Amino acid sequence: MTLAATGGLERLSLNTATCKRLDLAGCVDAAARAGLGAIGPWRDRVHEVGVERAARLIRDAGLRVSTLCRGGFLTASDDTARRDALDDNRRAIDEAATLGTRELVMVVGGLPSAFGRLGLAMTPGDAGDKDLVGARQRVADRIAELVPYAAERGVRLALEPMHPLFAADRGVLQTLEQALDLAAPFPADVVGVVADTYHVWWDPRCREQIARAGREGRLASYQVCDWVLPLAPEPLNSRGLMGDGYIDFPTITSWVTDAGYAGDVEVEIFNEQLWALPGDEIVDRIAERYRDLVAPRLG
Amino acid sequence: MTLAATGGLERLSLNTATCKRLDLAGCVDAAARAGLGAIGPWRDRVHEVGVERAARLIRDAGLRVSTLCRGGFLTASDDTARRDALDDNRRAIDEAATLGTRELVMVVGGLPSAFGRLGLAMTPGDAGDKDLVGARQRVADRIAELVPYAAERGVRLALEPMHPLFAADRGVLQTLEQALDLAAPFPADVVGVVADTYHVWWDPRCREQIARAGREGRLASYQVCDWVLPLAPEPLNSRGLMGDGYIDFPTITSWVTDAGYAGDVEVEIFNEQLWALPGDEIVDRIAERYRDLVAPRLG
To answer: Could you tell me the fold of the domain covering B1-66+225-299?
Structure first.
């Protein structure tokens, strides 16, 4: 029996990275079969079928698009890379609009000296560039450049603070406070923040800044997955099923509810063991943990 | 040639964990030969020779003790473990006093549910205890219990915020701000904070909180080592030689100098490749990077 029969999954959203072996149609089918309300597609899965067709495929299954993952990578210091990144982000904004989601998740990018780690092009000056303060300023400057384009299309740039584990190579935004400070000059419906438990659970200001995000109308997405130890050989793939690690989901979920968040709860788990399972089983396991640890505090 | 001849290493301190294969006498010799001004011993190395003899050995070599590493592990929720931890910390305070250092580094401990990872005893209630807020409160309560004992012996509890990578299993203090807030009720000469680049480099409030630590007279130790990627299979041993990773040492060092810090700069690197080298070579490499990246900004 799938969990579809038991209901209560209207706010649960399946991020496509959680079912890495499924294409978009496979993810949509698995989510819809289990009674989930939404899906959070990555752009690669969308591009495989084309944006228009992806939008139709999701809509026809009766699912919402909780977020589009992802824009960002805005930290390059040379002009060509800056222009390329802005162009790519404008395309991502267009795709989000076509898919009918307001929230474009932004992973802002790391230090130029770490670009090579993710296969990004490096200029001669990048190798020695460890200027974290400067990289963060470039993110702020480029968000400002993207805001008018996003505003015109009804899309919100949802800044995702990343666990400090990823500060060097993936994202120089580390805390909700920092993301909210960066968002502050812009309208709340154009620049928001993502609260992903994996990235924010350790933060001494987590509760306070989730409340602030709610107050300021900027809480764009609540994402759940667990901090498990030991880390996987590729730490990016260390994310675990809720309940398998050390995060206190009932507590953090109650903070999100208290902040007035009424949107989807997206599950994005990079985990080799989980990926090895059939899609329906992945979704069933997620649904079970969601019911136990998250849904009771959603209010 | 060792670097002893070239001087300028008066403020450099060798943490004994950096030369894992050497005993205390070996570390002392290597540090003194290279012209370093201080040593930062771990308690296991001290216990091997006895505290009185360790104190004499270090003093006779003309070295200071920058810090004693380490007290802490204060997060257990049952009474027996609480009493044992307080007893052990009182012994650590006595040892620091005997060694003639004012600074006892405190690694405060992780969540009860993660105790098993470090081989710590677990009670039946611990397995499900993921209450990070509660664990942090216990640290505050137990620091308060230790303060009178430390004050009488002229020893300062130097709280070490740890990279969020270690929030679950090693230390529930993540930021300098959090450590300074915890220290605030107590005299500045009894509770201080450690700024270890590995643990604080990513923090958006790093500069501001280093300045605050200086203003409040609580900056007890400045420690340097680099954030390198990929992480080692055991992430604890991922710490790298300054310059091998992504940390901007000149900038952070200038923040520390601007905060009025005039103490020792301790190098604590857990790294299998470094450990494999002869002790004198380890110290020479450290001295070289210290001269290039740290010393010029020490003022």
So the answer is: TIM Barrel (3.20.20)
Q: For the beta carbon of residue B236, count every other beta carbon within 10 angstroms.
A: 13
Whether B204 and A177 lie within 8 Å, measured CB to CB: yes
Q: Domain boundaries in chain B?
A: 1-66+225-299, 77-209
Residue B133 touches chain A, beta carbons under 8 Å: yes
Q: Which CATH superfamily is domain A68-224 in?
A: Divalent-metal-dependent TIM barrel enzymes (3.20.20.150)
The residue among A17, A58, A23 whose CA lies nearest residue A38 is A58
Asked if A268 has any chain B CB less than 8 Å from its own CB, the reply is no
ipTM, two decimals, is: 0.95
- Give the minimum alpha-carbon distance from A171 to chain B in angstroms, rounded to a whole number: 11
Q: Do domains B1-66+225-299 and B77-209 have the same CATH topology?
A: yes
Cβ neighbours of B234 (radius 10 Å): 11
A133 touches chain B (CB under 8 A): yes
- B130 touches A: beta carbon within 8 Å: yes
Residues B228-272: tens digit of each pLDDT: 999 998 888 999 999 999 999 999 999 999 999 999 999 999 999
Q: Residue B273: exposed, middle, or buried by beta-carbon count in 10 A (0-12, 13-18, 19+)?
A: exposed
Q: Which CATH class is domain B77-209?
A: alpha beta
For the stretch B201-232, pLDDT in tens is 999 999 999 999 999 999 999 999 999 999 99
pTM of the model: 0.96
